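**Backbone description:**
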Amino acid sequence: MRPHVRTAGALLALAALALSLAACAGGDDASSDEVVEIDFFHRWPNEPKNAYFTDLVERFESENPDIKVNVESVLNDAYKDKVKVVAGSDNAPDVMFSWSGSFIDELVAGGNVMNLDEWLSENPDVAERYYESQMTPFQIDGAQYALPVGMHAKLFFYNKDVFDELGLEVPATWDEFIDVLDAIQESGRTPMEFGAQEQWPIAHYVGTLNQRVLEADVFAGDQVAADGEFTDAGYVEALERLEELAAYMNPDLTAVTHEVARNAWIAGEAPIMYMQGSEVAYFADAAFEYGTFNFPSVDGGEGDPLQLTGAPEGFVVAANTEHPEESLRFLEFMLNEENGIAYTEQTGELSAVVGAVEKSDSPQILKDTADKIINASSMTSWLDNAYNAQIVQAYLAETQLMLSGQQTPEGVMTAVQEAAARVRDAS
């Protein structure tokens, strides 16, 4: 009987071993089915973009059940502050929104975002998906650090009905522009709307005028924090040109927000306003036809008049992400052609994916704006993205005082030069 007992024991042992192996195998299967979590941080907690990105994440998770995307969003100023803190931490979000210009420069200088060159070289279809002019603002020393989600540009929007009534043509030069403004004013209308209670719309005027007036080397050179001096006489001239335009604007401009001014333009209170192409989504109540024109050339100016002020926005991947494959998969999905078309249709903004705006079911004015961006000789970055934050603060605060009659163009530039000196000393 003993042999039979030993045989039964051996069988029990083999069964136990099989169960143990099965348990191990089961553990491996469970491990392979684990869901990887990545964090996505953007600046749109409001609509329509919040709903767009919520839907996008749900679709991505449905198609990629092995990945869960945790989303956090905060508004612009809070985002700028928070992302600079978290991007350099061990808990950096895997995928983050980024502006171009000095903002991404700072992120890259801190070693906080991934160089995408190797991935793009392995995925040429992704690299070739976007307009080149929207890729280059995210390149530093020739390397690509972000992919663009949207194209943004500043244009003068004008009321075609008023222009037709007064027999006006779209101006291309400064003198033509002033003639148009004079004709509108003589008709008893306020020619232009401008809301300068917030400082960022001021940046768009000043940055564009600087580009139009200054020599290209001076304009670019002063954007380098360690070198910027802002002593060229063209800076004062640019502010004088802004003062000249202010005489044609609503008189309470520093007490009016951009939104209030835009609503006044939509209501037909003034026929011209400097706005972004993405604002077309707000124009549904406009009871007139409208068109756009680029900022006119400035007589005697040294800058390229075919440049267009604006800059793409995009997304980066954290340099220290623990999930690079999953993060890049999400980035590629978020910025593919299908979602580029949806981005344009649902948010009213211009996708940087080649052909997406053209294929979208969106107003012709958006498609025309996209053409202007694509065909511009190059893009002039927003002033508040082009310069060091200390310089921007001095520039915009002092220019705001100038627009309210409390400062002069020379005084503005003295304050800017002092800020630039402080930045140089700290560099």
